[in-house]
Structures are given as C-alpha cells and as structure tokens.
Structure to design on (354 residues):
C-alpha cells in the first residue's frame, strides 16, 4: 500500500476519533447543568478541538494529494474534507475511498 | 479568462469567496479573543485586594517584577517639600502633569519615602497645595521610570519622567525604588482638586494566556489559504488550454 494511502487512512482514523471525542466533550459542556462533574469534564476536554483542528489541517493536505493522484473530482475531494468535520461520517468515507482505490487504482492499494 | 466569468461558474466563485471570507473572519475573531484575554489578565492584578506595602517591597529592595500594578496600602507621613510634577501626562486627551508627593513610610517624616502620584492636573500653577501630616491610602505599585530623558530645567519642580535619581534631589531621605498611583483620587483626601491619574505600566501577561485562541486563529487562516489555493488550481484547470 502506498505511503499516501497509509497516511490518509491513519489520519482519517485519528481525525474521526478526535471528532467523536470532541463532540462528546461539547455535548457534556453545553447540554449539562453548569457546575456538575460531567459538565466540568466536558469543559476541560475542549482542548480536543484544538488537536483535532491541527491534525485536520494535515488531513486536508493529504486528502488533497490523494485525490489528485487518483484523479478524483473536486466534488469528491469536498466529500473527503467534509468528512473530517461531520462526526462519524469519516469512517464511511474512508471505507468508500479504499473501495474506490481498489477498483480504480489497484497499484496504490496493492 | 473571460470563459471563467460566465454565469455557470458564478456559483463556484461565490462559494470560494464565501469560504475564504468566513475563514479570514473567524481567524480575526479568534485573534481578537486572544488579545482580549491577554488585556483582561493584565488588568486583573490591578483589581486584586490591596496588600500592605511592606509585604511587597522594602525601602532598599529592587522592584518585585510580578507586582507591577498591585494595589498596596501605604501608611505614613507626607513630605510636602518634596512635591514634584511630571510633565507630558495625558488625561482625556489633554496634556498635563502628574502631581507627586513623597510619603515617608513610618512614624517619622525622615523615614524612607514612597513617591505617590496623587492625581493629574492641567496646570502646575493652580494645583492644590501639597498635603501635610499623616495619611493612609491605597495605590497601584509601579516601577520607577527611567529612559534617560534629560531634565532640561533641573532647578524647578517639573520632571520629564518619574525617575528616582531626579526625585531624590527634592527630598532629604531615601526613596523606595518604586512609586504608587492613588487608585481612587476622588476618595482620597490628598487627591482633592486633582483628577484621576491613569496607570502607565500594566503587569506582564503570562506567555500561555489565551494561546488556544491564537492557535485557532492560525488554523482558520490556514484553511482560508487552502480555499484560495484550491480556487486557483480549479481556475487553472478549467481555463481552456490555448495549445489545444
């Protein structure tokens, strides 16, 4: 499997997990009673968003190069990028990316 | 190029512009939040409860760097003959003077004195007379100034800046290596007839304050740059190849 594809899959996993964790922290922070233990935990975990943002920047660049390499449309690149922002979506998108690569560029997936 | 200005491309251009504008704006918003947090932290020390002067600085001590702007309670005796005026101080956009009288900290008027900025006046001639006797007041502690500006008339009571080496010519005792700005001029007897002097030096802000907002700002600008880049590539690819 090419380095690009491996990087994309690893980043997709990390971004996906951070996105879910960040969403949970925000739900705790904003939806629970102010001052309760879980609410404060959510407040303390907001740094997850910072980490997510920085790793997402790397994801954006890698997704861009991957989509160029595979010759995909800008629309599909848009789907790849959006997947890093909508919770859980990235796990399905990553699956679809691997499937498309296998069909269109077996040499990249090996 | 005119090919790309056709109506069927308008939506794509508009989308790029909106995304780019949003990223720049969100970055500026986070950058402002970062600055605001730092300014708030700088102010917060000045709003703490006052400490007794002796807990913060002694007469022979160097200025404690982490107490710039700390409110201190001072008890002592005025040294009216040591009164000086510091020129070039603005108040509500008007040029004027700080009115500074040393306060001997202790029971005797010969004890080491702390320079106290009693307030602001626009005219030295009409400034109220210096107070006498004992006093108790609260002021923000400030390190002495000193950028080497030359006092052009060393004979008079007007100084270009609040430097200990200049002020000490006007008193017979030792001076603290600091000065205090009366926090509430209107509520202090020695401030009668004077207006509030504003704080010149605010405490240094911790390096990490609001850093998260700063990093968010960088992220947003990165995405803005990425949008611009994708837009540019797309324009290049859509443009009909002249060689074809």
């Amino acid at each position: 499997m090419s380095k690009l594809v491996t990087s994309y899959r690893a980043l997709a996993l990390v971004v996906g997990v951070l996105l879910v964790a960040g969403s949970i922290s925000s739900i705790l922070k904003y939806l629970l009673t102010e001052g309760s233990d879980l609410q404060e935990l959510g407040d303390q975990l907001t740094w997850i968003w910072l980490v997510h943002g920085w790793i997402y920047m790397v994801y954006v660049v890698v997704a861009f190069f991957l989509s160029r390499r595979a010759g995909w449309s800008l629309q599909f690149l848009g789907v790849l990028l959006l997947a890093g922002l909508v919770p859980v979506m990235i796990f399905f998108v990553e699956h679809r990316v691997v499937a498309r690569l296998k069909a269109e560029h077996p040499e990249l997936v090996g | 190029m005119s090919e790309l200005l056709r109506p069927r491309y308008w939506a794509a251009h508009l989308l790029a512009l909106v995304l780019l504008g949003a990223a720049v704006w969100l970055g500026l918003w986070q950058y402002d939040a970062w600055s605001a947090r730092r300014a708030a932290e700088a102010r917060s020390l000045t709003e703490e409860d006052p400490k007794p002067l002796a807990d913060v600085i002694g007469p022979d001590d160097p200025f404690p760097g982490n107490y710039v702007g700390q409110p201190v309670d001072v008890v002592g005796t005025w040294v009216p003959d040591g009164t000086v005026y510091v020129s070039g101080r603005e108040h509500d956009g008007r040029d004027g003077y700080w009115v500074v009288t040393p306060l001997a900290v202790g029971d005797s008027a010969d004890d080491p004195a702390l320079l106290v900025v009693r307030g602001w006046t626009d005219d030295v001639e009409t400034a109220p007379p210096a107070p006498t006797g004992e006093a108790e007041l609260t002021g923000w502690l400030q390190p002495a100034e000193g950028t080497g500006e030359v006092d052009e008339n060393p004979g008079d009571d007007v100084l270009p800046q609040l430097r200990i080496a200049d002020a000490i010519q006007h008193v017979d005792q030792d001076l603290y290596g600091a000065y205090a700005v009366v926090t509430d001029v209107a509520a202090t007897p020695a401030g009668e007839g004077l207006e509030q002097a504003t704080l010149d030096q605010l405490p240094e802000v911790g390096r990490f304050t609001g850093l998260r907002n700063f990093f968010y700002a960088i992220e947003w600008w990165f995405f803005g740059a990425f949008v611009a880049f994708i837009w540019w590539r797309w324009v290049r690819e859509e443009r009909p190849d002249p060689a074809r």
